[in-house]
Amino acid sequence: MKRILAVDDSASMRQMVGFTLKKAGFDVTEAKDGSEALNIAKQQGFDAVISDVNMPVMDGITLIRELRTLPNYKFTPLLMLTTESGMDKKVEGKAAGATGWIVKPFNPEQLLAVLKKVIR
Amino acid sequence: MSIDLSQFFEVFFEESFEGLDAMEAELLNLVPGEEDLETINTIFRAAHSIKGGSGTFGFNSVSDFTHVLETLLDQIREGKRELTAEHVNLLLKAVDCLRALLSALQAEQDPNLEDAIALRIKFEEILGVNQSGATKVAAEKQPAQPEFNTYQIDFKPHHHLFKTGNEPLYMISELAELGDLETLAFHNELPDITDLSADDCFLSWRFFLNTVKDESAIREIFEWVEDDADISITLCGGLFAEQQQATIEEPAVENIESSPEVAEVAEVVAVNPSKKAATAKVTTPAAAESTSIRVGIDKVDSLINMVGELVITQAMLSQIGEQEITETTIASLQEGLAQLAHNTRDLQESVMRIRMLPISFVFSRFPRLVRDISQKLNKQVELKLLGEQTELDKTVMEKISDPMVHLVRNSLDHGLETVEQRIAAGKDPVGKVTLNAFHQGGNIVIEIMDDGQGLNTEKIKKKAIANGLVTEADELDADEINELIFMPGFSTADEVSDISGRGVGMDVVRRNIQSLNGSVEVSSAAGVGSTFTIRLPLTLAILDGQLVRVAKHTYIIPLISIVESLQIDISKVSRVGKDLDVLRLRDEYIPILRLYTIFNHQGAIETLDKTLLVVVESDNQKIGLLVDDLLSQQQVVIKSLEANYQKVDGVSGATILGDGRVSLIVDISGLIKLSGLRKPGSQELIIESKASLEAS
Amino acid sequence: MISAHSEVDSKIMLEQAQGVKQFLTFFMADEEYGVDILTVQEIRSWEEITEIPNAPDYLKGVINLRGTIVPILDLRLRFGLSAIDYGPLTVVIVVKVYFEQNSKIMGVVVDAVSDVYSIAEHDAKTVPNFTDSENSEFVAGLVNVGEKMVALLDLKKTMDI
């Protein structure tokens, strides 16, 4: 079973993403900010990471930058959840090592469709 | 796969309200010009989360509105715009507006969009854009025949592609899903094996895709790697333009740029919802009381511990039950039962604690309230909150908020003086209002203190005389005069102001608090300030009761309403009117209500001399309840009579006693109503010819 | 009509499908009455009760049914029949009554419980309009079981107090 780390400070978004991925047959671990996610990611391996951008403690871009420096996450798809207004965030995210982005708002079907680009 | 998003709504609402509370608290801390980045960031994040969630869960009215907020905050955050006091005020209004929108949505009602749109326009004025209503969606039918086109796609990833986490293979299979795909792979760039780095991508591809989709669908697949690969897409021409019947409707988004039309559209949008609002308002109330609570894990843990102990006690008792009965077993049985009683009590307390929340949930709305009102009144006020962690039952909390708001408004409006008056009186120009909460016995005490001018006893007395509540001849001390403000129909404000005294009097405050089995008192000193003290039971589910016997029936009188219990001295009793006995107690006259008459029970003690009288107080009125016997005092769990039966006059509920019998809880104010006894203006007692009194 | 119920055995289900319902019957003043067995929660012996002040005479009071407060009606008094002293056979049938808005658990005091019959709905006849009987309004239909006649109660009307 492929393992995905879902990171969002909003509990409802986290639950929605988690629930959707679990239903699609992924093994999902949730984290509420970048720093928590980084700690979890260091201890366990994941096949993909989906992270919100704006979060307290550590934001999503920093998380992606940190993850990319870890040997285990050199090639791992790292996706960020961003709003349509955050075009410069996309550029910033790419520069930090993000694989791609999912534009909010999205529904569960869109999430899974986008995910197919990087993990199967 | 279909997923029902509504399962996440409750969490979304809960966290959004929390987010709004946080936004509000941070906004109140903001001083324009001295704002720190982390505060702005926190506010931004809250707005951002609400926007993201509401968009995802389909609450577009909220996400549209939050969008302008977010944009403004983002600009401030990025240093592109300076924060002004106007921004803060507007943002605070936006918080209110979002709260209203979300509450309506939570209650599954159509939100009132009027305020939101007005506010959004203001935001857009600041931002210098006019977006609201600027995009119009027009459904345009496209000539339907989907055409098959063949595209040539050249895809040459840069070497580092894998390091972005992207995988060309998956992209190719995505591409294959769009139509018929032919693939050519080029490996001419592959270096010698010695130079080959496994981390890098040296392959490139050329695809021929025959598809009904357009170029954008192809672009979308390569969207993430546009900067990490050379991509070219060219149309080779329609190969098989087959007859396809399907029609595609695509909404076309059209930007309207001329401003007059924009205004018009905005207006139309603003008018329609107001009609909706009118119908929505009628059904508003049911919403507010939420049905779920968050419980700290420590509380759950302690509960589990208790249950563990209970299981041990139970095991011990059942072991004793299997043994032969000797003196030793009886001793250990007693010990076991004591243990059980202890466990039960602990368990009860722990379970009750689950419903307990810190009063900061109520307190937190006051900084905003005080800020708004003091601005309006042009007074300087410092608000101090003490004992915010004091816990009380969630249901009590939900109901105490309004009376507290009323009292705080009163303190600000009538209690505190204007800056000039304060300076003239030699006081600190900044007035102080303090909210203090603490536990005392089984109650929570909430004090609302101000250091204002105090209650004007002269004015109160005059007003009371004018209203016929007291007479000139009555000698009342200051406390008694102050008590008068809780009388129905009393308001000292010379003019009804916007802040307080809009028809809702202190009598309503007191009645609301009494309906929670609580009490409110005032103490005041001229020139020094006033203190309102609210006492409330910690929970509505449990009540401290005095068990009394009337004939063969056991009733429960709430302990909080009992003033005293005494044996009647017949020489102090006089008869008023046809059948009302009145007891002179010190300098008061207490009407005697015979419970057996009101409840129509046979076989009770009917003589007054030496019989027990429980003096109770409700709605500022003292009455004596004649009972046969005083039994024990105990905590009782309140059960509803209405669940399976109906409301019973003079009874507020029922409980189950230790022996399993049901006992009814007396409702004092209901009893007064039932007896036909009305509150006298002075010592005169008015008796209505109530059937229940005459029946006996 | 059957309301949602927790446990229904397959026999009842089968009979329902054929329009057959089971009725619990009881005696009152030598008449036999029936109630839909699915509404019956339990049958209890008469016990001490807490009176409700100023309630109608047929409302005997309330009891504690495992922590909930349940009102008890005397069906004889409700029907305007003569009261009798409660004896060892006197029982309380606890039923769940479905009203438009809600459902309530209530108990009725009857002389004695009789039997359980399966009755096809189409066998029930409408009540002839007895001019002399006040309680015909509480009866939903009459059926013959062998030689006897059973009056099927309209619980909603009977318990609407």
UniProtKB/TrEMBL annotation, chain C:
It holds the Pfam family CheW. SMART domains: CheW (SM00260). It is found in: Cytoplasm. Its main location: cytoplasm. Gene3D superfamilies: CheA-289, Domain 4, SH3 Domains. InterPro entries: CheW (IPR039315), CheW-like_dom_sf (IPR036061), CheW-lke_dom (IPR002545). Residues 20-161 form the CheW-like domain. Keywords: Cytoplasm. This is Chemotaxis protein CheW. It comes from Pseudoalteromonas prydzensis.
